[in-house]
Amino acid sequence: MARRMALGVLFLLLLSGCFETNFNFKTIVHRNGKIDREVQINGRGADRFLPPSGPAWNVKTSETKGGESILRDTHYHIHASGHFIDPSSFASDFRYDTPDLISNLTDETRQELSGELGILEPFEKEIGTDNQIALKQKSLLFTTRYEYTEIFHVRWIIPILLHDLKKEIVRERTVSLKSQSVSETNEASTGATIEPELLAPAKIEELALKRMKEEILPKFQFHSEVTLPGRIVDANATAVQGKTGIWDFNAAVFEGKDGTYTIHITSKALNKRAIMLTLLLLLIIAVSLIFFRSRRMK
Length: 298
Description:
Helix content is 33%, strand content 35%. It is of the alpha+beta class. The chain has a seven-stranded mixed sheet, with no helix packed on it. Strands 7-8-13-10 form a four-stranded antiparallel sheet.
C-alpha cells in the first residue's frame, strides 16, 4: 500500500482496518507548574501521525511486522517523553501528517474540497489535528488550586471522510441495484432501473453517518491520564484514581469541521511551606509571650 495517497481513498483504508490506531497520553503536573508528558501512538495508522518535535522531547519510533496479508500488516510505534517548564512551552503531540496526505491531490480534487466542502486554501493550514494544554494556579494562604485543561482539535478530516464515504455508498448501491435488476430481468445492465428512494440524499447521509460512527471512528482509541498535586475536586474524567484523572474515548467525540474534545480536571493542594511558616510564627509568638510573662513575674 503506497505511503502517499489521495484523500478520496482514505475511508477505504479506514474500513479495512489499516488506520486502527491507539493514543496513550500521560501527564504529570508538579507543584511548581512544571509538566512531564509521555505519549505513545501505536497501530497500523500510527505512521499517519507526526512524532512530537522540539528540544524538550525525547522521541523513539519503531515498526513491527505481522504475517503476510492482503492488507498492510505493519504496526508503527511512536514513543515520546517531554519535560516542560510551563504549558506555554508544550509542543503538540497529536499531529496528523497533513502535508503528506495532500501532497498528491489533483486539481480536480482540490476544487472539489474547496467547492463542495468549503475548505479554504492553503489546505495545510485548514486540515489537520493538534492539542493544546493550559494550567492555572491560584494560590491562597494555605492551599493552591490547580486547573488543568487540554483541548484536542480535529479539523476537516471527519467531514472529508464522510463526503467520500457518501460518494462510495452511492457507487456501491448503483452497482448493486443494476446487478440485481439484470439478474431478475435477464436484460442488459443499460436497461436496469434504479430505485430512487435507495439513492435519496437523506438515506445516503443516514447510512454514511452510521458507518462512520460504527466502523471508522471507533478505530481511533484515546487514553489519557492526568496527575495533579493534592486532592481532585472536579473533573470530566471517565474515572478518578487518587490524584489521577483518566479519560477513555474514541474519535466519535469529534464533530464538525472544527471538532474539539476538551478534558479538564481541578485539584487543591495544601501549601505545606505556608503552613509550616505559619506554625513557626505562632510558636515564636507563643514562646515570646511566655518569655515576657515570666520576666514580669520576677
